[in-house]
Structures are given as C-alpha cells and as structure tokens.
From TrEMBL:
The keyword NADP applies. Pathway: Carbohydrate degradation; pentose phosphate pathway; D-ribulose 5-phosphate from D-glucose 6-phosphate (oxidative stage): step 1/3. It comes from Cupriavidus gilardii. Residues 182-479 form the Glucose-6-phosphate dehydrogenase C-terminal domain. This is Glucose-6-phosphate 1-dehydrogenase. GO terms for molecular function: glucose-6-phosphate dehydrogenase activity; NADP binding. NADP(+) binds at residues 10-17, 44, 141. GO terms for cellular component: cytosol. Gene3D superfamilies: Dihydrodipicolinate Reductase, domain 2 (3.30.360.10), NAD(P)-binding Rossmann-like Domain (3.40.50.720). Keywords: Carbohydrate metabolism, Glucose metabolism, NADP, Oxidoreductase. Pfam families: G6PD_C, G6PD_N.
Length: 482
C-alpha cells in the first residue's frame, strides 16, 4: 500500500464521522495503511487536533468499544485537524504547504461536503498545486441536483483534474455482495445462458431502509429518494445485473459495458410517468414496534413538503438481451425492514406435467441479498415426499458469513483503499453519471409539474399501495420475504 496523505474536506461532518473515519480506522487496525500515512481532516471552524479528536471519539464511541485502546491511540496519531474555509485562500495555502512539504506518494482529497462547495474547493486545490498527477480527488454523491448542475460540477472539476484523477464514489459499488454479483455472473457458466429475455420474466431490485432522514432533514428535503438512491445506487445495481460480460476486469472494460445499459434504458416520457412510477412519503407509524413520526414532522422538513421518501419504477432496457423484461426498482425510507436485494424471476416451464403449487410468485427465483446479511438463495420445485405427485417449493441457500469466516471490508474501506491504490474500476465515470441523470430527469420534472402530492404510506410498511399495483398490472408481485 503506498504512502499517502488523505485530506478529508468536511472532516467534521456526518459522513466523515459515520463512515469515512471508521472505515480508515478499520483499515488501520487490519494493518492495511502505510505506517507514514496521515489523515488531514478539515473544517471551516478553528479547532486544535486534540479538540477534534475528542469530539470524534465521542461520535464514534459505540464502534470503538471493542477496539483495543492502543489501536485507537496509534490511529489518532495519524490525524491532524486543519482549518480550511472554502472562502479563505490562505487556509488552503497552509494546507497545501503541509502536504507538499512531506511529498507522500499519493495525495487523496476527499470532498465530503455539500456539492455547491466542490467547485470553489477544487479551484483552491488547483491554485495551490494540490492537483499534481499524484493527487486523486474523491467526489461524494449527489454530484449536482440535475443534469445541468452535474455537468457544471464535472466541467469545473475537469479544469483542475484529469479524468483519471477523479473518483466519483457510489458506495454500493464497494459492497462485497455487489462484486459477488459479477463473480456469480461471469465466474460461472451456469447462469449466463438463462440470464436473458427468453428465460427471465422480471428483475426486481429493492433497497429498503428502516431509517428515516436521521437529522439530515435539510439535505434530504432538497434531494428526495430519486436523486438520493435511484440516480446512483439503484441504477448502478441495475447495470451490474444487466450488462454484457466485459472482456476483462479492467476499469474501462467494465465501465464501457455499464454505460451501454444506461444508454439502452428506455426513456420514461412525461405521459408515462404516472403509469410507470410511484412516489410516496411516509406518515407516522411504527418500526420494530416503536412509534416513529411522519416525514412532515421530522426536523428540517417543510410542513407542506412534496419530497418523496419512496420510489418504485418499472424500467425497461431496449436491447436484444432484455427487450420486454421489466426491471422493477424500489427504494424507500421507514420501510418494514432493512433489506437490499436483487431478485431474478425466471419463467415458468413451457408445459406443466405436474400440478403447479398455488402461488402467484414464479417458482424459479434467484435472490441475491446484499443486506442485512449477504446470501444467495435459489428457489425451485421438488417432489413432495411420499405417495404423491405434488411439487413443493424449496431453496438452495448460501450464507456468505457462515461459509467464509474471514474479515470483510466495509464498502467505504474497500473504496478508500482502491483510491489509495489508484484503482478506478469501482468508481463512476463521468459519462455514466450524465446518462443516469438524463434518464431520471424527465421523472423529476414531471413530478415537479404535477399537482398530485406523493402517495402516503405508513412508516413500517412496504410503501404505498400503488407500488403493488404497479406490478399487479403486469401480473407480478414484489418478492417480500424477511
Ligand atoms: C446513501 C444515502 O447514499 O445511502 C442515504 O444518501 C442512505 O440516504 C444510504 O441511507 C444507504 O446506504 P446503506 O449502505 O446503509 O444501504
């Protein structure tokens, strides 16, 4: 692992505290960081490193309980707080001097701030020389608010950094299970012949959360589920499921296949939005038996907000492999349970010689679960034991935690290590991002122009009734099994 300095812009923020620093701490504990590597956390307020570390320790405490104190002490020795307000050029002069005087092999500048600060911060990096060829810049999502603002940010960042220095992060691509999806598809000959319109009835991708907006009301109310989850995480998963086999695992071989899928997504026209999409907003309800407030009662949310906390979409891919196969996408906050999964429903046998079990769900299903546990389950029919010809459903189960008892890096840890090693494959290329915005934008615009509010759903359920209706119009059902 090369020696590096990581400049965490937004080092006092929620993302740094909840995800980035814990991920770096895990990598440190696993002995994966170069001994000389440093983390320079920046914030707009004056503070000392000691004060910063004390606050950080408070915030990270529950996760630190099982770590030996020596590990924390040696990790903290890598940390340094630097005041860097985007409006104060002299702050960035000092920051650049600090980094450039040491000359680490790699410098990672992680922009964990609001996107409107990306451009002024990149300007400062460019002005102070923190954009040399060994510098890599990491851009957090959401990159912009729509296609135009996304392009404006990308164009501005490109003035200071070459494309191969830019790491657009989508943490779903760092999840072990998402990479496993590639391994399952392209490491085995078994599934590939079936992975097409002739054998697949529909594909469902769900990312359901129990959490609400968790103190991020201001951000979330400006964003909504379509921008927060669909434009990035769900479309990236869709690409991984639908793309053609890449010729190799090199970064552009994979990304070239993903962009083809994004380009092949059938546009949803304004006239089709009502028929192919559902947007919902949660009302008060209960999660795991505990009452929770409705979205409109959350702090930071406008009382008449029309921001969606749930989205379901029927997407289609216009190419030879997938023409006519619905890809049902769904995500929501305050849903019945936390689950992220990809379900491939295979077609029924062409001619039934056994009586069929009475259920509407397809009998052959492959369920690739990403969360809460990582598993793969293949459902099929077998003969019911005894003196009968009836069939009964059963499944083959693979639970990764039980099968492989090794430490698994979290998504952010893996991606941060990839940035340090200069591996771009799990990061989103500019053209992918543009194409994803292009596809979601007509939906955003049509919703914004509509006089209809999002459909209400009770917290702790699977979303509005319209979400089930979206599928029942095609005689399909969401796969819901907890
Ligand atoms: C983030 C979204 O990108 O992903 C959050 O901004 C969401 O709103 C989170 O909660 C979900 O990630 P995970 O890994 O917990 O499923």
């Amino acid at each position: 692992m090369p020696d590096f300095d990581m400049v965490l812009v937004g080092g006092t923020g929620d993302l740094a505290r909840r995800k980035l620093l814990p991920a770096l701490f895990d990598a440190h504990r696993a002995g994966l960081l170069h001994p000389a590597a440093r983390i320079l956390a920046t914030g707009s307020h004056p503070s000392t490193t000691e004060e910063y570390v004390a606050t950080l320790e408070q915030g990270m405490r529950p996760g630190l309980e099982h770590a030996p104190p020596g590990d924390w002490a040696s990790f903290v020795a890598r940390l340094c707080y630097v005041q860097a307000d985007a409006r104060q050029p002299e702050h960035f002069d000092a920051l650049a001097r600090k980094v450039l005087s040491r000359q680490p092999e790699v410098v990672v500048c992680y922009l964990a701030t609001a996107p409107h600060l990306f451009v002024p911060i990149c300007e400062q990096f460019g002005r102070t020389g923190l954009n040399q060829s060994n510098v890599r810049v990491v851009l957090e999502k959401p990159l912009g608010h729509d296609l135009d603002s996304n392009e404006a940010i990308n164009a501005a960042v490109a003035r200071y950094f070459a494309e191969e220095q830019i790491y657009r992060i989508d943490h779903y691509l760092g999840k072990e299970s998402v990479q496993n999806l590639m391994a399952i598809r392209f490491g085995n000959a078994l599934f590939e012949p079936l992975w097409r319109r002739e054998w697949v009835q529909d594909v469902q991708i769900t990312i359901a959360e129990e959490l609400g907006v968790e103190g991020r009301g201001d951000f979330y109310d400006q964003t909504g589920a379509l921008r927060d989850m669909v434009q990035n995480h769900l479309l990236q998963l869709l690409c991984m499921v639908a793309m053609e086999p890449p010729t190799s695992l090199t970064e552009d071989a994979v990304r070239d296949e993903k962009i083809k899928i994004l380009k092949a997504l059938k546009p949803i026209t304004p006239q089709e939005v009502a028929e192919k999409t559902v947007r919902g907003q949660y009302r008060a309800g209960a999660i795991a038996g505990k009452p929770v407030p409705g979205y409109l009662e959350e702090p930071g949310i406008a009382p008449d907000s029309r921001t969606e906390t749930f989205v379901a979409i029927k997407a289609e891919i216009a190419n030879w492999r997938w023409a006519g196969v619905p890809f049902y996408l769904r995500t929501g906050k305050r849903m019945q349970s936390r689950v992220a999964e990809i379900v491939i429903h295979f077609r029924d046998v062409p001619h039934a010689i056994f009586p069929r079990p009475l259920t509407l769900s397809p009998q052959n299903r492959l369920v690739i679960r990403l969360q809460p546990e990582e598993s793969i389950r293949l459902y099929f029919l077998v003969k019911q034991p005894g003196d009968t010809v009836a069939l009964t459903p059963t499944s083959l189960d693979l639970d990764f935690a039980n099968s492989f008892k090794v430490r698994r890096a979290g998504a952010y840890e893996r991606l941060l290590l990839d940035v340090i090693r200069g591996r771009l494959g799990l990061f989103v290329r500019r053209d992918e991002q543009v194409q994803a915005w292009r596809w979601v934008e007509p939906i955003i615009d049509t919703w914004a122009d509509s006089s209809l509010p999002p459909k209400p759903y009770t917290a702790g359920t699977w979303g509005p009734a319209a979400s089930s209706a979206l599928l029942s119009r095609d005689d399909a059902l969401w796969h819901e099994e907890v």
